[in-house]
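Quick question, first post here. What does this chain look like in 3D?
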Amino acid sequence: MTSPLAQVLAEARTKGIKLDDYPGPAPADSEAAFQLQCEAARLTGWRQTGWKIGCTSQMAQKMLRTDGPFPGPVYAERTVEDGGRVSFFGKALRLVEPEVAFTMSRVLPPIGRDRTAEEVIAAVGSVHLSLELVNRRLPGGLEDGNTWNIADGGCNDAFVLGPANDVLPAGRYAGLELTVTKNDEVVSTGVGANALGGPDIALTWLSNYLNAHGLMLNPRDVITTGVVTGLIYVEAGDEIISTCAELGEVSAIYG
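> Answer (accepted):
Ran it through. Tokens below.
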């Protein structure tokens, strides 16, 4: 039987609307919220191309009043090419998160134990800069109930993937330095270590989390590993560019 809550969440995403009221009681815990997220993802009818990882930074965890990360789906229908225009609807939060992303080259099925970062990075085909547009389709802001944020697809809205780069060894990602400009003005900087100690560590967390839930990372999956700079608020027409010496740049125009 289809959950009415999942149906409402799926429709809010595909129709690009912000709900005036909560569609029912909040999920009891993060596990219930993730199951609701997965059901809503199926009901969208959209093509999931990978995952985002939310709350990998202490800044984000403090904002959302939680103490750990969570996953969310990324869809082809809301993925924009590098340098393209990312649309948003009128009531959207319009927060951009500059991140580091990975494209997988092989499957990582459950093996009866947690994998190490070295094992997970060995299954990666390329590494990229990325931009995630964050939005909450439920009432209120990001701080208003984190189980709802998880259920609402981890608050993912849209995604931009930068050019592919050679994979760095595990342990090299914490020191990556990102600089972000908005309309040619530097607005934020950050380091890879802000994402759970490093994007490679965040990716490893996701792989093990999915395995524990009977899921897995697959070839061509794209995973964006959480904000490493400040959150960037955008208005229509703003251009965001994120750069990194090792990974090049990624850009998008919003609105």
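Residues 182 and 240 are 5 Å apart (CA to CA).
Residues 4-254 form a domain with the Fumarylacetoacetate hydrolase; domain 2 fold (CATH 3.90.850.10).
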